[in-house]
Amino acid sequence: MVISDALDLVLTPQVILTMIASGAFGMFLGAMPGLTATMATALLVPITFFMEPVPAIAAIVTAAAMAIFAGDLPAALLRIPGTPASAAYTEDAWRMTRSGRAADALGALLVFSAIGGTLGTIVLIVAAPALAEVALKFSSFEYFWLVVMGLSCAVFVSPGSSLKSMLSLVVGLTAACVGFDNPAGQPRFTFGNVDMMAGIPLICAMIGLFAAAEVFRAIVHPSRAVRAERPDTSHIFARQWRNIRRYPKQMLRGSALGTIIGALPGAGADIAAWISYAISKRFSREPQKFGTGHVEGLVEAGSSNNAAVSGAWIPALVFGIPGDSITAIVIGVLYIKGMNPGPTVFLMQPQLIYALFIVFLLANLIMLPLGWVAIKLGARLLSVPQNILMPVIMLSCIIGAFAITNSIFGVWVMLAFGVIGFAMEECEIPIAPAILGLVLGPMLEKNFITSMIKADGNLLAFFERPIAAVLGIMAVAFWLLPLIRAILRRRKAAIA
Amino acid sequence: MTGKIVKAIGKNRIGRRAALSGIAMVAATAMGMLPGPMGAGKALAEFPERPIEMIVPWGAGGGTDAVGRIFAQILQENLGQPVNVVNRTGGSGVVGHTAIARANPDGYTMGVMTIEIDMMHWQGLTELTHEDFDILGMVNADPGGLMVSADSEWKDAAALRDAIKSSEPGTFKASGTGQGGIWHLNLLGWLMSEGIPVDAVTWVPSEGSVAGLTDMVAGGVHMVPSSLAEGRALIEASKVLPLASMSDERQELFPDVPTLNEATQSDWKLSVWRTIVVPKGLPDDVRAKLAEAVKAAYESPTYQDFMKERGFGLRWLGPEEATAQVADDDANLGAVMKEAGLAK
To answer: Which residues are listed as membrane-spanning (chain A) (predicted)?
Structure first.
């Protein structure tokens, strides 16, 4: 009964057309470097005032889902990651593009985004209240360990020497120290500059490290900048069928982990993607291929970050707790439309909640055809000659960086990090750990300091709460495992 | 990106280009993204003759952003020019407020000023004070509150106060904003009004009150002194117990929650407010026209309904009264910050 009422609410021409239009809008905004999914949702809010509740929510949810996938387009084609979450697999996706497999990479990101999002939504439908109760048990102690595990991934994600990975991580962590928004409330490394008080804008730094650095490299080594092969964009979906059969475990593991991490309001899609990528590499049969253009990490991390986006609705719907800025916006819209988030919404207005669930599922389905069109169009970008493409990339870097801070400050940050990224790559220092440091540095500091204040400086408090203790032991084991293994190996050698 | 795609396609297939820009256009128009008819029906020389910028010093998706955007939407209809919202975030509001104050005083830049303007100059973060702005109107105020976890052993504010008084300093922990943030000052102001030393309760910095509330429910801290509206979903879910509202009267949304004065006889009151401001030095006729438009927007049913449904407090103060209120809060917060050693 409730389900058919809900279907009646969703399957109207108005709702479907709204979803397609806002999907195209989200796809367009997400594909523009520097324009984010948050921006897409915030722009839609004033328009939704004049809509019925279901189309209003449908518009926002669809636009957000599309924009998050579309962020992968410039990541794979131009090495400009749209979100920190897609930075985890930018290197692999871009290298696949360079070897003429752009359609394969983007197809994988599209299909596994949709699958991850759908599986996450199913978990949301089945287990939202129970999972939300678990999420409420997480305080700064638990988040601290989660962040530590995320940072440990830096060592696993990057190919090559772990010393160089650490160095890169430190670059990111240092940059994350800048600004005023730290637990002590003291300006650090701002040199009296008002813009610096806001800290290093993450997306600007990311665009610089990846994309601007690539442009600089093309200038310095024009001979090395071989033109990417023209990709074969036929059978985008057929190829993914093969990936599903080949990596079913990765797909399910990524979706499950993504949903759980996404449901924690203090974690989210960024950590989910990185941890999934690291797990994928750790348990892969071919870990040496990661970072060289291997699709396996894309499958797992791609499912994971979209599952996390679905998971973020769990605390948002059950307790009105936003996990990220998109859910924060939608919670506001839910209040305006009289669908106050809270346990009661499941009892009082079940048909509206089920309509919402159907909208989530439909949004992931609509992603497939819209994404297909975007890939077909986007892949043509690669046939543009290098000497035209590079200036255009630089231009979009500048526009994107400006759009993030709404000031020229963002452009300077982007250029500075472009130089840093160029220097790092010349020394064969991987870039991904620096991004991870930038994303997780502030979270690490915040959770550590607040935990210490709460525990009056008692370090053992990190193991006193049950969930924190389990996570803590896992994290410590993560670090000690290579050491123990080395000792065991030496012992074995000594005996032999 | 589209520009580049179009360029790549344009070489051989015009049809595709048309299809793509078609999609973009449909999306943009369907969403109302395109600016309205430029200067519809206005005489050319009359202000405003081009789009107006509305600077919001806080991030997209927050409460101030929501207020800024709904205002922009209504002003756009009344003034016949697009009003674009620009988020200038960071540095606890310093970046955005500075951008508003330093803008060209021609009426084409306005902004949302928040109570942090009364705090940051005391902290020595900036020279900027409310005197660098002309206030067009105060459009919202949310009283501070006092909330504990539903399974807390203290069920009213007086019992909590007595427990704080009789415990070792630092036994109790509170959270809800960053160190020295507005809700931290709310707590300190309350403690001072009860004659309790400011170091009695340890402040645990958090990113906003929702983060503080979740931490409290998870057992991390004892109390959160933020506005009750921010805890609404958790209060309705019986996870959080509201103890008091730092206002003159009980709040419409929470009729069962006593005012702080009813609960503990303390006379401490604090509301966080949002004002629509312009930089100092606007031509008088332009400022008068904008002030009138802001008042009309405040009174519009769209704004009134929006605020009620979001659970935001409605309060209107005209330019003079608003300036007086802002100056008053500036003095009170300054006193608290000096006492707590947060002022420089």
So the answer is: 24-50, 56-78, 105-131, 143-159, 196-220, 255-279, 312-336, 352-372, 392-415, 427-444, 467-488
List per-residue pLDDT tens for chain B, 344 residues long.
333 333 333 333 334 444 444 444 444 444 444 444 443 344 445 889 899 999 999 877 678 888 998 899 999 999 999 999 988 887 778 889 999 999 999 999 999 999 999 999 998 888 999 999 999 999 999 999 999 999 999 999 999 999 999 999 999 999 998 888 899 999 999 999 999 999 999 999 887 788 899 889 999 899 999 999 888 888 988 999 999 999 999 998 899 999 999 999 999 999 999 999 999 999 999 999 999 999 999 999 999 998 988 888 899 999 999 999 999 999 999 999 999 988 87
Report whether A89 contacts A273 (CB < 8 A): yes
| C-alpha–C-alpha distance, residues A85 and A277, integer Å | 10
Whole domain around residue B244: which residue ranges? Answer: 145-264
Provide the CATH number for the domain around residue B257. 3.40.190.10
Q: Answer whether A134 touches B (CB < 8 Å).
A: no
Contacts of A128 in chain B (CB under 8 A): none
The answer for residues whose C-beta is within 8 angstroms of residue A234's C-beta and 6 or more apart is: A103
**Same domain for A349 and A492:** no
A447 and A473 co-located in one domain: no
Helix (H) or strand (E) holding B119: helix B117-120
Helix (H, G, I), strand (E, B) or coil at B22: helix
- Selected for mutation to probe chain A from B25, B31, B58, B119 (highest A CB count within 10 Å) is B31
Cis peptide before A385 (omega within 30 of 0): no
Report which DSSP code applies to A12.
Answer: S
* pTM, two decimal places: 0.80
Note whether B152 and B247 are same-domain residues: yes
- Measured between its terminal Cα atoms, the distance across chain B in Å is 48
Give the number of residues written for chain B.
344
The burial of B153, by beta-carbon neighbours within 10 Å (0-12 exposed, 13-18 middle, 19 or more buried), is given as: exposed
Alpha-carbon span A59 to A45, nearest angstrom: 9
- Tell me, yes or no, whether B190 lies in a domain: yes
Total count of domains within chain A: 2
Q: Which of residues 204-233 of B touch A (CB under 8 A)?
A: 204-207, 210-211, 213-215, 217-221, 232-233
CA distances from A149 to A144, A152, A451, B60, B269 (A): 9, 5, 17, 29, 44
Range of the domain at A484: 467-496
- A473 and A432 within one domain: no
Would residue B341 be called left, alpha or beta, if left means φ above 0 and alpha means ψ between -120 and 50 degrees?
left
**Side chain identity at A409, as an amino acid letter?**
F
Which 3 state secondary structure label does DSSP give B163?
A: helix
Q: Is the ipTM of this complex over 0.85?
A: no
**Number of domains making up chain B:** 2
Judged by CB atoms closer than 8 Å, whether chains meet at A336 and B309 is answered as: yes
B276 and B226 assigned to the same domain = no
Q: How long is chain A?
A: 496
Same domain (yes/no): A135, A71: yes
Q: Do residue B156 and residue B190 come from a single domain?
A: yes
Using DSSP, state whether B53 is helix, strand or coil. strand
Model pLDDT for residues A186-243, shown as the tens digit of each residue: 888 988 888 888 889 888 998 899 889 989 988 888 766 555 566 677 778 888 888 8
Q: Which residue has the tokens 């960071």?
A: B90
* Domain co-membership, A454 together with A364: yes
CB contact under 8 A, A197 and B125: yes
Which of A24, A49, A62 is CA-nearest to residue A365? A62
Q: Are residues A410 and A491 in the same domain?
A: no
Q: Tokens 């928004």 — which residue?
A: A181
Q: Who contacts B16 (Cβ-Cβ below 8 Å, separation ≥6)?
A: A377, B9
CA distance linking residue B39 with residue A20, whole number of Å: 31
On whether both A260 and A303 belong to a single domain, the answer is yes
- Give a yes or no: residue B41 inside a domain: no
